[in-house]
Write a structure and sequence with these properties.
Length: 195
């Protein structure tokens, strides 16, 4: 499983893994269409902050809309989550991570929205072990904004949200942010968990 090996090597060597082609172009297009369908049906809701998702006053911290994925919702969501389950199985077999769960959501950033610098693990909940973000954008360029900035101890890494690419890092170690998007930015974000 070369993509999974690439992710592990990245986290071990530089605190994050960037995986080109984590999902193929057909699944990227299907997931993008599903996300847009959820948006058009009014299923996506403004994202909150914190364990109860209540705090995000006037969108000062983040401006994305989200919809939680479930294998029972739609065949396309199921296909993505089965890919996640394969990654978890590989991590457990090769790295003895003890992962036994996950949670993922679609994320839509309208032009002008962002997500301020943060960590993904709550202080009172150690369940989130790894963060995984997978991009669904088509023909994205650096001028479109919306880059993910990873704040590592000795450097900042900028990731352009190109469709099919995934980024993988430890939820409790890597602070990160999404800079302002200048066009609609689409992704799936979530966590590999140990309960």
């Amino acid at each position: 499983m070369p993509h999974s090996s690439q992710a592990i090597d990245g986290v071990t060597e530089q605190q994050f893994g960037s995986i080109a082609g984590f999902i193929d172009s057909t699944l990227v297009a299907d997931l993008r269409n599903r996300l847009l369908e959820c948006h058009e049906q009014g299923l996506m809701k403004p994202a909150g902050i914190g364990k109860d998702s209540s705090y995000n006053q006037n969108h000062k911290v983040r401006g994305d809309e989200i919809f939680w994925l479930d294998k029972e919702n739609h065949p396309v969501e199921k296909a993505f989550l089965e890919r996640v389950e394969s990654l978890i199985s590989y991590l457990n077999q090769t790295c003895y991570t003890g992962l036994n769960g996950y949670e993922f959501h679609f994320a839509r950033y309208k032009p002008g929205s962002f997500y301020r610098r943060h960590l993904d693990r709550f202080k009172t909940d150690s369940g989130r072990v790894f963060s995984l973000i997978c991009y669904l954008n088509e023909n994205w360029t650096p001028e479109d904004g919306g880059q993910l900035i990873l704040h590592l101890p000795d450097q900042q890494v900028t990731v352009v949200p190109v469709g099919g690419q995934a980024v993988f890092f430890k939820s409790n170690e890597v602070e990160h942010e999404v800079v302002e998007a200048h066009r609609e930015r689409l992704s799936i974000a979530g966590w590999l968990k140990r309960n």
